[in-house]
């Protein structure tokens, strides 16, 4: 069995706002979600970096029916439950309706650092009875399945910054192969803590600029590191015929996915972006598309000097003959949300296709010869028939999704 997979609902919790609309508007308006760290004192923690992209509103305030329980849910899981509520409503689902066949609904939600904040808070203390269920990586998918009564396939990839993309790719396989009719898929992370920020700070991976709004600069020649972020992206994946039968209008279709390893270094991408290049080629082959068919790239680009350059190498190699299509990294607005990043970007790509507007790359001002790409700097109204979204993570793990206009 091989069925077409469509995206019928979107949900976001990001530093630009706890909804798809607020996030989308912030992207088009060129708003930065970065600011001074307020969840703890960076000076007290002895950090060089003092900037992050933080979610403002309490997740419980944006989820209906008291679904968020901060006694048993870690912050990362609370984000997932809140974003799922928005995505299901957007898709027109009601768990009490005849369309909701619980055994045919799956959950696939990845995370990079998951309950790191909860683990850090519990260090040296006697664990509470709810400690493990607030910290384990799979509890975002677990809590979502419990709150919505989803009894189908359930998974939680922990593949660092590719986790959200890998979760969506696996969910698409579930739908395509008939293991589920609907899957709640995405990624979530909440690592703004002394240990979370401190770990990246110790690696000298973070921007140390004094200007929060200008700190994350994907592909820009003056980039000096990433800005750590938090949040969640959820997409509702559904078999096309199932969506058609209930009268749902898809945002986009997912037609291909790639998953590769660099087998090179724990943190540095492979020379010439070899792993990501192969991943892009694999995804396009899976979608049965030539590179010339791609109208837009939503890039992983985290604003690190080496990472962005290696991604540019990969894109240039794959689109050598046709030329790299208009390219955006939304991490200039949102920072790097680790395992949530690819899922947030997947939701944005689906909205990009539906709206016919490519969002800009914030803070791209000085082109870098090592990143010779057509970087989009203003909202661009255009027809996007095919788009790709790229992800890469520590351990040399890569993920790419191919989206098409339905």
Automatic annotation (TrEMBL):
Gene3D superfamilies: 3.40.47.10. SMART domains: PKS_KS. Signal peptide: none annotated. The keyword Transferase applies. CDD domains: KAS_I_II. It holds the Pfam family Ketoacyl-synt_C. GO terms for molecular function: 3-oxoacyl-[acyl-carrier-protein] synthase activity. Residues 2-405 form the Ketosynthase family 3 (KS3) domain. GO terms for biological process: fatty acid biosynthetic process; isoprenoid biosynthetic process. Keywords: Isoprene biosynthesis, Transferase. It comes from the Archaea. PANTHER family: 3-OXOACYL-[ACYL-CARRIER-PROTEIN] SYNTHASE, MITOCHONDRIAL (PTHR11712:SF336), POLYKETIDE SYNTHASE-RELATED (PTHR11712). NCBIfam families: PRK07314.1. Belongs to the thiolase-like superfamily. Beta-ketoacyl-ACP synthases family. This is 3-oxoacyl-(Acyl-carrier-protein) synthase II.
């Amino acid at each position: 069995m091989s069925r077409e997979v469509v995206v019928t609902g979107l949900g976001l919790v990001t530093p630009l706002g706890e909804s798809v609309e607020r996030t989308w508007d912030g992207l088009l308006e060129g708003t930065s979600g970065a600011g001074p760290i307020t969840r703890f004192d960076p000076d007290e923690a002895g950090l060089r970096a003092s900037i992050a992209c933080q979610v403002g509103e309490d997740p419980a305030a944006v989820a209906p029916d008291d679904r968020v329980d901060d006694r048993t849910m870690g912050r990362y899981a609370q984000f997932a439950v809140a974003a799922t509520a928005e995505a299901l409503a957007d898709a027109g689902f009601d768990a009490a309706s005849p369309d909701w066949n619980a055994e045919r609904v799956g959950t696939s939600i990845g995370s990079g650092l998951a309950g790191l904040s909860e683990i850090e808070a519990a260090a040296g203390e006697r664990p509470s009875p709810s400690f493990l269920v607030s910290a384990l990586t799979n509890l975002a998918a677990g809590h979502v399945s419990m709150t919505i009564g989803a009894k189908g396939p359930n998974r939680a990839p922990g593949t660092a910054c590719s986790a959200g993309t890998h979760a969506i790719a696996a969910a698409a396989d579930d739908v395509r192969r008939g293991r589920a009719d609907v899957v709640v898929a995405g990624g979530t992370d909440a690592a703004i803590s002394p240990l979370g920020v401190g770990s990246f700070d110790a690696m000298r991976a973070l921007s140390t600029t004094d200007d929060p709004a200008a700190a994350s600069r994907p592909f820009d020649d003056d980039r000096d590191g990433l800005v750590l972020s938090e949040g969640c992206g959820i997409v509702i994946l559904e078999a096309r015929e199932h969506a058609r039968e209930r009268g749902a209008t898809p945002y986009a279709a997912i037609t291909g996915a790639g998953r590769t390893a660099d087998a090179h270094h724990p943190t540095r991408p492979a020379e010439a972006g070899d792993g990501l290049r192969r991943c892009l080629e694999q995804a396009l082959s899976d979608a049965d598309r030539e590179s010339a068919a791609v109208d837009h790239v939503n890039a992983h680009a985290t604003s690190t000097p080496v990472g962005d350059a290696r991604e540019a190498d990969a894109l240039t190699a794959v689109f050598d003959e046709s030329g790299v299509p208009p390219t955006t990294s939304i991490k200039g607005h949102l920072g790097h949300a680790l395992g949530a990043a690819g899922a947030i970007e997947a939701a944005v790509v689906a909205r990009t296709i539906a709206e016919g507007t490519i969002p800009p790359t914030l803070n791209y001002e000085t082109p870098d010869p090592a990143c010779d790409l057509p970087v989009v700097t203003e909202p661009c109204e255009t027809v996007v028939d095919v788009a790709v979204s790229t992800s890469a993570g520590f351990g040399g793990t890569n993920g790419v999704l191919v989206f098409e206009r339905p």
